[in-house]
Amino acid sequence: MARLQFIKTVIYGITASFLAVCFVIFPKEASEASVRGMAVWWDIVFPSLLPFFILSEFLIRFGVVTFIGGLLEPFMRPLFRVPGSGGFVWAMGLASGFPSGAKLTARLWQEGHLTKEEGERLVSFSNASNPLFIFGAVAVGFFQNVALGFLLAASHYLGNLLVGFIMRFHKLEVPSHTRHNRSTISLKQAIKNMHHDRLKHQEPLGRILGEAVNSSVQTLLMIGGFMIFFAVLNEILEIIRLTDIFAIVTSFILALVNMPNELSPGIIAGLFEITLGSQRISDTTQATLLQQAVVTSFILAFNGFSVQAQVASILSETDIRFLPFFIARCIHGCISAVLAFLLFTPLYVDRLSQPTFSLWQNPSVNKLAWGYEVLIAYYHWLLQYGSLLTAFCLISWLGWYVFKPVNMRRS
């Protein structure tokens, strides 16, 4: 064991030193990549995730998650073998995007709502790309194709659902003390449970708000650091041609599924960071739209090493292992790619073949169109005003952190 730890120390030291030398040799490229990663976090990620993080902290502390868990227990337990509160994590993860699912899973574990095995199942399918990114950034921003967003979203979220069902078989042998009653919980009992859970957090409202904002901002700062680092890392690996090693493997896989080798650079970039990978896939003119959609679906589901590193950092504060999450991401990537291939005709080709007037006169389609327009409008609003909102929030948080009461500093 001591020898293995010594080998790890040598490998970590050599790798860190090598990267540091590369950053010094290529400062211009590293700086430009850093700015690109920072821009995405500053304009989009921070202002879009901060409200979800703060709201989730309130819902947990006020016992609302316990209330929701009581109502969803008969649904979540048989299907996914997680507590009913996992339904809240799943919904928030889908709405706000990664790594919200991991953060909320860790919070529920810290509050005692999850066991280790339940946390490993829940985090495997509660992290997903949010609709804002799929429709706004990928479909419109990269592909300039409105209809493609529905295909990517359907394959992504349906694949996530299937991954959750598959991961229910993770750790089938669970000790008896972790099993829960699957009987339906009444509304009255759910309200009592919510009240009992809220009493565990009898703190002033101002303190709860301050701690919620502080925890959320610190998590987002960590996310920003990972995004910037992996943007620079991906650029450096391309400059020193180290990505050519990955290209050999991806080229072989692409040949097996009869796809052009020109998709390989986008796949490699997507393995590290999904935004850059999706953009490069959309710029590949040698591939058909079907092939681009299949590969993009895989990249979105795999999450990229940048997001996975964020999840690993969040889970490190718990006893929830990262390996099941990584395996689930590989499964999700494959399932979403297959779904994109199977659903391409019914969700994309057939939709385009319908007359525009009759399509948009359909009430159900009109509701989807309205929701889509809201997402796109919100995305463009973030591009225009997101940086100002981020600056305001960070300045406000810094002022609160410096001048907050002494008793809160000690805690």
Overview of the molecule:
This protein is mainly alpha-helical and 411 residues long. It has one domain (28-168, 183-410). 80% of the residues lie in helices and 0% in strands. It is built from 19 helices and no strands. It has helices at residues 2-25, 27-61, 64-80, 85-96, 100-110, 116-125, 131-142, 148-166, 187-199, 205-239, 243-256, 264-272, 274-282, 289-302, 304-315, 323-353, 356-361, 363-403, 406-410. Helix 7 (131-142) crosses helix 18 (363-403) and helix 10 (205-239) packs across helix 15. The chain starts with a helix and ends with a helix.
Helix content estimate: over 70%
* Overall 3D form: globular
Mean pLDDT: 82
Main sheet, how many strands, which sense, barrel?
none
Q: Radius of gyration, rounded?
A: 22 Å
Q: Proportion of β residues?
A: under 5%
What is the number of E strands?
0
Low-pLDDT residue intervals, each spanning 5 or more residues: 176-183, 356-361
Structural class: mainly alpha
State the separation between the terminal residues, measured CA to CA: 37 Å
Provide the domain count: 1
Number of helices: 19
How do the SSEs run, as a string of H and E? HHHHHHHHHHHHHHHHHHH
Protein name: Sporulation integral membrane protein YlbJ
Domain Nucleoside transporter/FeoB GTPase Gate: 45-142
Transmembrane segments: 9-26, 46-72, 79-98, 132-158, 208-233, 326-349, 382-403
InterPro entries: Gate_dom, Spore_IM_YlbJ
